[in-house]
Structures are given as C-alpha cells and as structure tokens.
Amino acid sequence: MALVILVIALVVVLGVWFVSIYNGIVAKDNRCDNAWQTIDAQLQRRNDLIPNLVETVKGYAAHESQTLEAVTSARAAVNAATTPEAKMAASNQLSQTLGHLFAVAEAYPDLKANAGFQQLQGDLTDTEDKISYARQSFNDCVLGYNNAIETFPGNIVAGSKFTVRRGFEIEDAAARQAPQVKF
After folding, report:
1. How is this protein annotated for GO cellular component (predicted)?
2. Which of left, alpha, beta for 159 (phi over 0: left; psi -120 to 50: alpha)?
3. Does residue 67 belong to any structural domain of this protein?
C-alpha cells in the first residue's frame, strides 16, 4: 500500500513538474510574440510618418528624387514583408535610407529650419529609439525562450513542438556603417 502511494505521489510530482516547465516555455513563447508585436507597432508608426517627411523634403529638395524614391521603396518593402525575418531585413534597409535622407537634408538650411521638418525628424528619431529598444527587448525574449527549450530539462518537455526562434540582427554589413554623404 505504501509503495502505491509513493508511486502515485511520484507521478503527481512529475506531472506538476512537466506542466510547470511546459507552461514556462509557453509563457516565454508568448512573450516573444508580444515583443515582436511591439516592434511591428513601432515600424507601422515609422511608416505612417514617412510620407509626411517625404512630402516636406520634396518641396525643398526636388532634385533629390533618387533618395526620396529609395525611402518610398524601402517603406513599401516594410509594408509588403510578411514574415518577421523579411520585416527585419526591410526595416534595416529603411533605417539606412532614412539616414541618407537626413544627410541630404543637412545641405538645405531652409529645410533644416522648417518647423514641420524638425517635428517630423524628431518624431522619427523618437520612433527609431523605440524600435531599437523594442528590438533589444525582442532579442532578450528570444534568448530566454531559446534557453528554455534548449537546456535540460526544458529540451525534454519542449520536444519537437517548440522550435528555436531567431533574434533580430543586421545581416547587411553595409547597414552597420554610417552613411557617407558626398556633395
């Protein structure tokens, strides 16, 4: 009788242990999804600001059409991206083209002094800071999740149901460099 009670207690303890680890992995997975949604919301905010910025710059720098087209094209790529990886790559490209746009604006003192441009530039800078913070938060969530499913005993509980996530990283080495502007 005592052996049966011991076996039942052991099964219950193992069951609680398994459920606890499983629920922890699910919570970490959900945290990663939430962190990605935060990035996505900030990317959308940036995309909403860009048309106003482009229109403001157009009035001052009409002959800089190549830079304006690059920004518009990069924005469209972010909107068209369907996977987190594609959004990451498109977002990196958009950040790079926005850097070129702000560098071009330096050549136009009237544009730099325009209150609307300054407000838009400030809003975009603020949004870029939020995107950067959200990316770091996402990467932290991914690290915690990946550690949970790859280390013992989580790897046993995770089995093949949970897969390793990829964090946010810059793939294009050129994006790591500051843009060079030549006039």
Report:
1. membrane
2. left
3. yes
| Domain interval for residue 139 | 38-157
Residue pair 32/145 in contact by the 8 Å Cβ criterion: yes
Count of CB atoms situated within 10 Å of the CB of 12: 10
Total structural domains within the chain? 1
Residue 153 lies in a domain: yes
62 inside domain: yes
Global confidence as pTM: 0.79
Over residues 103-158, the pLDDT tens digits come to 888 888 777 778 888 888 899 999 999 999 999 999 999 999 999 999 999 999 99
168, part of any domain: no
What would the pLDDT profile of 155-179 be if each residue is shown by its tens digit? 999 998 999 999 987 766 655 555 5
